[in-house]
UniProtKB/TrEMBL annotation, chains A, B:
Subcellular location as annotated: Nucleus
Signal peptide as annotated in the record: none
Composition bias, Low complexity: 198-210
Portion of the full sequence shown: 102 to 321 of 441
Gene coding for it: LOC108562833
Protein name: T-box transcription factor TBX1-A
TM stretches of this protein: none
Domain T-box: 4-186
Length: 220, 220
DNA sequence: TTCTTGTCACCTAGGTGTTAATAT
DNA sequence: ATATTAACACCTAGGTGACAAGAA
């Protein structure tokens, strides 16, 4: 009962081998991890959270000549893993289900000493994002948090953490699909990945669409 | 146990006769209504909210020759009054008390048909903002919301709703103290209301100060 | 070599009062 | 006359990859 938003875009990145930038100050993910939930108890309260688990115990390096990732040794030591709690938590099932849930406040960092609550990852390592729905039992109940949570894994959201993009095709797809990178687009406005980008923007607009849409009459 | 933030700035506006812009799309207040709370039960849950009550039953008009507000008749009919719930609600007393509570998402409108949940006011009328702390009883308790809320009124936050500023001194004070109006400042950077503005910015920074402050060395 | 860091121009997104045009 | 609206230039605030310099 959790559906990944923007799945076509995730798939396109996944096919190329998704990379996510990590910086000292913290960098958002793109695509943003967004899900739609259903089947919750409308009246019950839930906490929503994400964490990131290593895909394997390896360190990678990008071979430019073959345009592919190759193993470069054992994994570096890991920091105590962090969990990102969705800032709207806790909220009722009804509130979570009536809109797309976006983790756009989540940031990735390679700073082991990070003091901002960001997710700490090792560059040149592979990670799998996980999404957790935690049921909050009423206070009078004795139940511990035994089986009161569900975990969702979308394998198409796995990625390699990098400090700079390695695969040039990933760079181009980011530029083509991330609105904030519009300044680096070469071709005519909205070219190349038009379909995916338009789909994305439409979905994001639906999410925030509370104000009356203003129909602008194009002047002749 | 509620302290108004930026009180010196509010006082300065109040002395001149505070005006707040209302627009069809909704306009934020400036100064922003911000309070600090103490004395709550750290573990209990509270909803925080604001509403706006008419100061009197009159309509006003600004007499430019005497630079003062004069009564212009009886009040216009009122829309059903709306309440703005702080978007972080509900939250525990502990969460509310550990930081300044800012109502910067609150917007004022003169559109009687507003569909965005903004506060509807009549232009050229006077209003008194009110702040409410609502105690949320645990679900097993039978208590109704009888006396489970407290209301705070800061008379220095009262204002006249306008569609365009009437008192030129109010305009100048807004330009001097609102960072978003910096483009209209004449004099040298940070002149005139330096003290108040600096105080404001320092307080707002304290509130969000989680990242390590980066000391920039000014170059010679 | 390979990877990381900091700065930058260029965007998105949205909050200001001004101004001219339009209601009322 | 007086009050309202919409477009606008100019800001704040912050998210992009490019690039040059630095580090391992």
């Amino acid at each position: 009962n959790a559906i990944l938003e923007m799945k076509p875009l995730w798939d396109e990145f996944h096919t190329l081998g998704t990379e996510m930038i990590v910086t000292k100050a913290g960098r958002r993910m793109f695509p943003t991890f967004q899900v739609r939930l259903c089947g919750l108890d409308p009246m019950a309260e839930y906490m929503l959270m994400m964490d990131f688990v290593p895909v394997d115990d390896k360190r990678y390096r990008y071979a430019f000549h073959s345009s592919s990732w190759v193993v470069a040794g054992k994994a570096d030591p890991v920091s105590p893993p962090r969990i990102h709690v969705h800032p709207d938590s806790p909220a009722t099932g009804s509130q979570w289900m009536k809109q797309v849930i976006s983790f756009d406040k989540l940031k990735l960092t390679n700073n082991q000493m990070d003091d901002n609550g960001h997710i700490i990852l090792n560059s040149m390592h592979r990670y799998q994002p996980r999404f957790h729905v935690v049921f909050l039992p009423p206070k009078n109940c004795q139940e511990e948090t035994d089986n009161n949570f569900k975990t969702f894994v979308f394998t198409e959201t796995a990625f390699t953490a990098v400090t700079a993009y390695q695969n040039h095709r990933i760079t181009q797809l980011k530029i083509a699909s991330n609105p904030f990178a519009k300044g680096f687009r070469d071709c005519d406005p909205d070219d190349g990945d038009v379909n995916l980008v338009q789909q994305q923007q439409q979905q994001q607009q639906q999410q925030h669409q509370q104000s009356s849409p203003k129909a602008k009459t194009p002047r002749t």
